[in-house]
Amino acid sequence: MLNDLTAFDFLPLATERLRLRRFQEKDAPALAAYRSVPEIARYQNWDSMTLQEARYFIGDQALAVLGIPGQWLQIAIADLVTDELMGDLALCVKKSFPPFVELGYTLAPAFHGQGYATEAAQAVIKVIFERTSVEKIRAITDVRNEASIGVLKRLGMHLHSTIPVVFKGEEGFEHVFVLEKTKQK
User: Fold this and answer.
1) What is the C-alpha to C-alpha distance for residues 108 and 93, in angstroms, rounded to an integer?
2) Residue extents of the structural domains in the chain
3) Residue 119 belongs to what H/E stretch?
4) Residue 96, pLDDT score
5) Which CATH number fits domain 3-135: 3.40.630.30, 1.20.1070.10, 1.10.3080.10, 3.30.200.20?
């Protein structure tokens, strides 16, 4: 199962409006900027990112591969025409039987509400389901993150469970959404 993922390189990948690709050094200022917006970081496991941290992150991700359990692959979401960094999409294989892929995404505020997260995630889900033996994709979001919940529903994911959490020192709840290959739109 994991062997077909570790040898699996699907980037770059183009959609109608986007180019999904590896991060490039030129992306560092934009990455640091949107990852330092408090409203963006609110539901993420980071609070901010300096330019130096963005450069390190980009260098680290240059070596990342999909398929190593517990390690995240961050994919740059860029404008198809200008190649401007708009956000990122994250994938992580979770070690279970059978293994599944966890999905996440972050967009700069200027690109919210325009369907970019849905477009990027749809393209990646399609490729993973068509070219690997992955049978399930999972995403977790804070119950208050209505925009993310909307994206997950548009992807055809269904609410699997709601779990209590302590996140960034605050008690709350997270929704777990699941999309199974056999039930994909």
Assistant:
1) 25
2) 3-135
3) helix 116-131
4) 77
5) 3.40.630.30
